[in-house]
C-alpha cells in the first residue's frame, strides 16, 4: 500500500485528531460483545499508530513496528490469531518481547476510498477462537467505523458551508411552484438580514409575500408571472413591512423548469437594499424639484460605448420613460433592467447580431418600464459608428421614439380581429354540434390571451326549482387541493354550478353591472379565495345581458396590468355574441320541447290515453320476426248497445277505464294501442304460447271483475283474438288475430281464441 496516499487520506479526513465519542462508545460495545479486555481503532499516522478510540488501553499511540496492528496494515486483510504463541508472526519478532502476556489478536482493516488507513483491533490475554460469523461481524463493524469516519468529514464540511451562508449578508430562498408558491428552504440569517423570524416563516404560519407592502405584492406577482412566461432570471426591489419600520430588499431570482417548460422551482438571493433605496428616493425627490421643461423633440438619442459600458442620452430619451436626466445612470444595466422581461431576449439578440455584422442596422420594437410603472412602447434604430483596429465594435448610436399610442392602436386592432375571429369560431362550433359548453371551452384559451389574464370562466344563468344558479360552461382547469379537484371533476362532467353570489362574481350578477377590482381584497364584495387557490390580484366580472336581463357572465382574473372600463367595452361584442348563443340554446330547447309535445299528441289517443292507430302502425314497422312475438286484438263486447242504451258519455268512460286497466296490466316490452272505436291491439314479446294465453285470460278476467259506471251495474267484457308473428309481415299476423277475434265472438264472447286453434 503506498504510504503517501494513506497519509494524504488521513490528513484529508483529519483522522489523527482527538478521539470520536461515537466511535469510542462503539469500541466499548464491541469489547463487551466479543468479551475481550482490549479493543481499539488504530490509525497509521507518520510512522505511528494513533489509538484514537480505545477500551482497556491507556497508551495513545505506538510505533508501527511495535504494534500487532501492523500485521493488518502489512497484509491489508483481516488477521485472526487464536493463540499468538503458536504463530511465528508473533514469536519470531520483537513483539513477543514487548507484549509477552498477549495470547489472542483479531484485526480488521479500516478502509477509506479503497485504501487501508488502519485497523479495528481486539486483544486478549488468553487464547480465543472466532467463528466465521464472528469474523463476518467484525468485518461489518469495521465497515461501519470506516463509513462514519468518512461521513464525519462531509458533515464538518456541510456545517462550515451552512455557517458561511448563515453569516453572510444575503438570504437564500427556495420556492416550489405548484399552481402557487410553496416555501421550501430559507437560510437562518433571514432574521439578521431581513428582520423575519426563521421559525415563523418556515412553519408556514405566514408566507414571505404576506410581509410585502401592497405595491410590492404586485411587483412580486409580476416577477412570478414573468417566470411562468418562461423568463429565467429577474431582478426586483421589494418593500418588507415590519412592526416599526420598512426594509427594502433586492431580490435576484432564477427559475428552473421541467422538460416541458413548466415552472418547477424558483431560487432567489435577497439582500438588504434599504440604504440604496433611500438614497435613490432622495435623488428622485431632488430631481423632481429641479426638473426643467422637457425637450420638445420627439426623438430621444443615445450613444453607447461598449468599452466603457456607458451611454449618453438626451433629455427626450429620459422623458420617454420618466427618468430625470440629471441623475440618469449611463450603464447598460440601467436600460436593460427597464426592458420588459418578455422582450429582453429579442432585443439582446438583435443587438448582438448587429455588433457581429450580421445586420446593416439595429432595429427593434419593445416595451420599457416607465417611472410610474406603466409600459412604454419604444421604436429604436441604431448602428455601429466606431470599431477598433481589429474590427470589433466599440460604439453604437441611434434614436429612440415613443410609439405607445400607435402600438396600442395596432394591438387594439389586432385584438379586435382576433376577437371577431374567435366569436365566429364560437358560433361555428355551436352550429356544428349544438353544444354550447364545447363552443365556450374552444374559445376560453383565446379569451384568456386576448384579455391578458391568467384565469377565466364563462357561465350561464339557469333556474332550477325557482332558484337562480350559474352554470359554468368553461373555466380554467386548476387542481389546488382535494376540494378543488372535486370541482374540476364536476366541471368535466358538466355539473359545475355556482350557487353562492356573495362574492365578486356574484356581485356582477346581483348588480347587473361590470365589476372591477384591481387591488387584492379591496372590493366590498371580495371574500378572498378558497384555501390552496392561487391569489386573485385583479378581477373583472362582465355581465352577459339580453334585452336588459342578465343571462350569464364572463369572469377574468390576474391581468398583468389593471382592468379598465375600456377592457369591458372591448369585450362587449363577445358578450353580445354569447347572449345570442344563450338565447339560441333556449329557443332550441323550447322548440324541441314543443315538437316532442306535438309528436306525443299526434301519437296518443286522447280518450284512452294509449297510443293511437298511427303510433301502432309505426311500431309495427319496427317489429322483426320472432318465435315469441304475438299479436292480439281486443274488442269490447256489445259496445254499440252500451252507447245506444246509456249514451256516448258512458261509452267514453268505459273506454277510458279499459284504457287505464290495459296501462296498468301491460308494461314494456309489450305494446298496447287503441286502433278503433272499441278495438285495442296488443303486441306481446318474449312469451311462449301458453304464457301469452295465460296473460290475456288474466286480462279478460280483470276487465270482467272491474266495476264500470253502467246505470244497471252490469259488467263489461271483452273478446280477444291471438295470432303468432312468424315472419316480417304484420298484416298477416293482424289478419289472423282478427279471424281469431271473430271466432271468439261466434263462440259467445268474453273469451280468448288463438288463431292456432282454428287453423
TrEMBL record:
Query: Which PROSITE patterns does the annotation name?
Result: GGDEF (PS50887), PAC (PS50113)
Matching entries from InterPro entries are given as: Diguanylate_Cyclase, GAF, GAF-like_dom_sf, GGDEF_dom, Nucleotide_cyclase, PAC, PAS, PAS-assoc_C
Domain spans labelled PAC: 232-285, 362-415
Please list the residue ranges annotated as the GGDEF domain.
627-757
Domain of life assignment = Bacteria
Q: What is its EC number?
A: 2.7.7.65
Reaction(s) catalysed (UniProt annotation): 2 GTP = 3',3'-c-di-GMP + 2 diphosphate
Q: Which PANTHER family match?
A: DIGUANYLATE CYCLASE DGCM-RELATED, REGULATORY COMPONENTS OF SENSORY TRANSDUCTION SYSTEM
Q: What's the protein here called?
A: diguanylate cyclase
Amino acid at each position: 500500500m503506498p504510504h503517501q496516499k494513506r497519509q494524504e487520506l488521513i490528513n484529508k479526513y483529519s483522522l489523527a485528531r482527538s478521539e470520536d465519542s461515537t466511535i469510542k462508545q462503539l469500541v466499548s460495545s464491541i469489547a463487551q460483545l466479543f468479551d475481550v479486555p482490549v479493543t481499539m481503532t488504530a490509525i497509521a499516522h507518520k510512522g505511528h499508530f494513533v489509538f484514537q478510540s480505545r477500551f482497556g488501553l491507556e497508551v495513545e499511540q505506538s510505533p508501527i513496528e511495535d504494534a500487532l496492528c501492523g500485521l493488518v496494515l502489512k497484509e491489508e486483510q483481516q488477521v485472526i490469531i487464536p493463540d499468538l504463541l503458536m504463530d511465528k508472526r508473533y514469536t519470531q519478532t520483537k513483539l513477543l518481547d514487548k507484549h509477552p502476556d498477549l495470547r489472542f489478536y483479531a484485526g480488521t482493516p479500516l478502509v477509506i476510498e479503497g485504501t487501508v488507513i488502519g485497523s479495528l483491533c481486539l486483544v486478549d490475554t488468553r487464547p480465543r477462537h472466532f467463528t466465521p460469523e464472528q469474523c463476518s461481524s467484525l468485518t461489518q463493524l469495521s465497515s461501519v467505523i470506516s463509513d462514519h469516519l468518512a461521513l464525519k468529514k462531509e458533515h464538518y464540511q456541510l456545517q462550515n458551508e451552512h455557517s458561511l451562508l448563515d453569516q453572510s449578508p444575503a438570504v437564500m430562498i427556495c420556492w416550489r411552484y405548484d399552481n402557487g408558491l410553496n416555501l421550501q428552504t430559507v437560510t437562518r440569517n433571514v432574521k439578521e438580514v431581513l428582520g423575519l423570524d426563521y421559525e415563523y416563516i418556515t412553519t408556514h404560519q405566514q408566507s414571505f409575500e404576506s410581509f410585502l407592502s401592497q405595491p410590492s405584492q404586485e411587483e412580486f406577482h409580476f416577477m412570478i408571472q414573468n417566470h411562468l412566461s418562461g423568463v429565467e432570471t429577474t431582478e426586483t426591489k421589494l418593500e418588507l413591512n415590519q412592526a416599526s419600520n420598512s426594509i427594502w430588499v433586492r431580490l435576484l431570482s432564477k427559475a428552473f423548469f421541467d422538460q416541458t417548460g413548466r415552472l418547477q422551482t424558483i431560487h432567489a438571493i435577497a439582500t438588504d437594499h434599504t440604504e440604496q433605496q433611500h438614497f435613490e428616493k432622495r435623488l428622485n425627490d431632488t430631481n423632481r424639484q429641479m426638473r426643467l421643461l422637457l425637450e420638445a423633440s420627439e426623438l430621444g438619442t443615445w450613444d453607447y460605448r461598449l468599452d466603457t459600458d456607458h451611454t449618453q442620452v438626451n433629455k427626450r430619451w429620459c422623458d420617454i420613460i420618466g427618468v430625470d436626466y440629471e441623475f440618469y445612470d449611463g450603464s447598460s444595466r440601467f436600460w436593460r433592467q427597464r426592458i420588459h422581461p418578455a422582450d429582453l431576449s429579442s432585443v439582446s439578440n438583435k443587438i448582438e447580431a448587429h455588433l457581429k455584422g450580421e445586420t446593416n442596422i439595429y432595429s427593434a420594437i419593445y416595451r420599457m418600464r416607465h417611472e410610474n410603472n406603466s409600459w412604454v412602447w419604444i421604436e429604436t434604430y441604431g448602428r455601429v459608428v466606431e470599431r477598433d483596429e481589429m474590427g470589433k465594435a466599440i460604439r453604437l448610436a441611434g434614436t429612440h421614439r415613443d410609439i405607445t399610442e400607435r402600438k396600442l392602436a395596432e394591438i387594439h386592432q389586432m385584438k379586435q380581429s382576433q376577437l371577431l375571429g374567435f366569436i365566429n369560431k364560437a358560433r361555428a362550433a355551436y352550429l356544428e354540434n349544438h353544444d354550447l359548453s364545447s363552443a365556450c371551452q374552444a374559445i376560453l384559451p383565446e379569451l384568456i390571451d386576448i384579455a391578458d389574464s391568467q384565469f377565466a370562466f364563462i357561465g350561464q344563468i339557469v333556474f332550477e326549482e325557482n332558484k337562480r344558479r350559474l352554470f359554468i360552461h368553461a373555466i380554467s382547469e386548476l387542481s389546488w387541493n382535494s376540494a378543488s379537484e372535486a370541482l374540476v371533476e364536476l366541471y368535466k362532467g358538466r355539473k359545475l354550478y355556482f350557487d353562492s353570489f356573495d362574492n365578486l362574481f356574484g356581485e356582477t350578477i346581483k348588480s347587473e353591472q361590470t365589476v372591477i377590482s384591481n387591488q387584492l381584497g379591496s372590493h366590498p364584495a371580495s371574500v378572498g379565495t378558497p384555501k390552496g387557490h392561487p391569489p386573485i390580484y385583479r378581477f373583472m366580472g362582465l355581465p352577459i345581458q339580453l334585452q336588459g336581463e342578465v343571462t350569464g357572465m364572463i369572469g377574468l382574473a390576474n391581468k398583468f396590468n389593471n382592468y379598465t372600463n375600456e377592457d369591458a367595452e372591448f369585450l362587449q361584442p363577445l358578450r353580445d355574441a354569447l347572449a345570442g348563443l344563450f338565447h339560441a340554446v333556449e329557443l332550441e330547447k323550447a322548440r324541441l320541447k314543443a315538437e316532442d309535445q306535438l309528436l306525443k299528441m299526434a301519437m296518443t289517443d286522447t280518450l284512452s290515453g294509449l297510443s293511437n292507430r298511427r303510433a301502432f302502425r309505426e311500431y309495427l314497422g319496427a317489429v322483426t320476426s320472432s318465435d315469441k312475438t304475438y299479436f292480439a286484438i281486443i274488442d269490447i263486447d256489445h259496445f254499440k248497445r252500451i252507447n245506444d242504451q246509456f249514451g256516448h258519455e258512458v261509452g267514453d268512460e268505459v273506454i277510458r277505464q279499459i284504457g287505464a286497466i290495459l296501462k296498468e296490466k301491460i308494461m314494456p316490452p309489450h305494446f298496447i294501442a287503441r286502433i278503433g272505436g272499441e278495438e285495442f291491439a296488443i303486441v306481446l314479446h318474449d312469451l311462449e304460447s301458453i304464457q301469452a294465453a295465460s296473460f290475456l285470460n288474466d286480462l279478460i278476467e280483470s276487465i270482467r271483475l272491474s266495476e264500470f259506471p253502467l246505470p244497471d251495474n252490469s259488467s263489461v267484457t271483452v273478446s280477444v283474438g291471438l295470432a303468432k308473428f312468424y315472419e316480417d309481415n304484420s298484416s298477416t299476423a293482424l289478419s289472423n288475430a282478427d279471424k281469431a277475434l271473430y271466432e271468439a265472438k261466434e263462440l259467445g264472447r268474453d273469451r280468448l281464441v288463438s288463431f292456432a286453434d282454428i287453423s
